[in-house]
Write a structure and sequence with these properties.
Blueprint lengths: L1 E7 L4 H18 L1 H4 L4 E2 L5 E2 L9 E4 L1 H11 L8 E6 H5 L3 H8 L9 E8 L1 H8 L7
Parallel strand pairs: 1-4
Antiparallel strand pairs: 1-6, 2-3, 5-6
């Protein structure tokens, strides 16, 4: 299984970091046993909370490329690929209920994505993102 995040390369650094954080939190919630490692105690007895056990490359994309990936997976989705998206609507809302209220009024064609996270079989993920380079 492979994880990638594709983030709009035109975003300022703060929004890139925020987008990656939001996508990562949602991914960890969905797959805590597969993605988050156990807590570790160091030699001094300090506990270090488990972090990801998987490599998560951040790929650079454009808004159009991100939307294209989202559309390629389709409304019904591919059951083998988990998709988490983060839109301009989500970024601008002050709380989750506002996000829910606004997003339910939008069609998929009107959404602009800041980033997307994909988790699934390596072949399928590579087919969707193989042409994208690392975000630098």
């Amino acid at each position: 299984m492979k994880i990638v995040m594709v983030i709009d390369r035109e975003l300022p650094m703060g929004l890139i970091a925020n987008t990656a954080a939001v996508l990562g939190i949602s991914l960890g919630k969905l797959f805590p046993e597969e993605i988050v490692g156990r807590d570790i105690q160091d030699a001094d007895g300090n506990v270090h909370v488990g972090i990801t056990t998987k490599t998560i490359p951040l790929l650079a994309g454009t808004k159009d490329q991100i939307k294209g990936i989202r559309e390629a997976i389709g409304a019904g989705g591919d059951p083998a690929v988990t998709v988490i998206d983060f839109s301009e609507i989500a970024q601008k809302c002050r709380d989750y209920e506002s996000y829910v209220d606004i997003l339910t009024c939008y069609t998929a064609s009107r959404l602009a994505y800041l980033g997307i996270c994909l988790y699934g079989p390596e072949k399928k993920i590579n087919k969707l993102t193989g042409s994208l380079g690392l975000l630098r």
